[in-house]
Specification:
Blueprint: E1 2-6, H1 17-30, H2 32-35, E2 40-51, E3 54-63, E4 78-88, E5 93-94, E6 99-100, E7 134-149, H3 151-156, E8 180-181, E9 185-187, E10 190-192, E11 197-209, E12 212-223, E13 229-235, E14 251-257, E15 262-263
Parallel strand pairs: 8-15
Antiparallel strand pairs: 1-3, 2-3, 4-7, 5-6, 7-12, 9-10, 11-12, 13-14
Length: about 270
Amino acid sequence: MKYLIVEADPSVAALTLDQALTSALTAAALDPTVTKYGNIVRQDATSRRLGPKKVEVTVTFGRSPAPPNPSSSAGIASFQARSAQVRVYRLPYIVSSDAAAIDPTSGLPSGDFADFRKLSANGLPQSEINLSGYPFDVPEIGVSLPARLSQASFNDLMYDASLGTGNEYSGTTFGQVGKYNQSEFTWGGIKFAEKTLRFDTADAQWVSENGVFVYYINYQFTWRPRGFYQQTLIGGTATNGPGGSDARGYQVTTDVEFARDLVDFAGKFPLS
């Protein structure tokens, strides 16, 4: 839309560009040609001087994105079940008996070593042996928690002065990306046990509703119900061999929980 702004007052020597832009934007806000289309918003405004008291202002518009469908879904979680691969060194069973062998805490295999060709007579690999592992599937769930935020709440996701000096960025919601819940986290009636939920990212879509900007957010997490574990090789000791035997000079495995960058998720993910 083009608006020709002219200063008609003979006592005014010149029309400034700021005055021209302000007048044009005021006219655009009331222009029925624009307002009749609903969620259409101003994207840019440029000016061109035609004389000391005459300025042509061009205002460009673009329709805002439609609200997500359904737009009333804020606060309702969605889930996507999948599997993730963890490198392990043991089998999920014991060869001699075919008995199942899965650690009840980590969910990782705790049976015989998979690379049996490199084992000594006591069933352990020597310390200098480069033992082979293999990928083991563990269950995980992608969790999406939607919200509908005001402009002020959206701004607080990235910067919040109330958190104090040094934390105004790192203490915000976006500052928690890659971190794990240090305590049980509840969303609605859903409970996530401590150290089982990692905040991965958040995507935002803005919408102009009756001239007011609102933001539809999806907070995205990875949930591993048994926690985040990896299997590593460590040096044997006098008591950590099979049945508490002497494992010095050999390698054994241990399941390590790597959810260590912990924060309190409570209050970090606003809905409005």
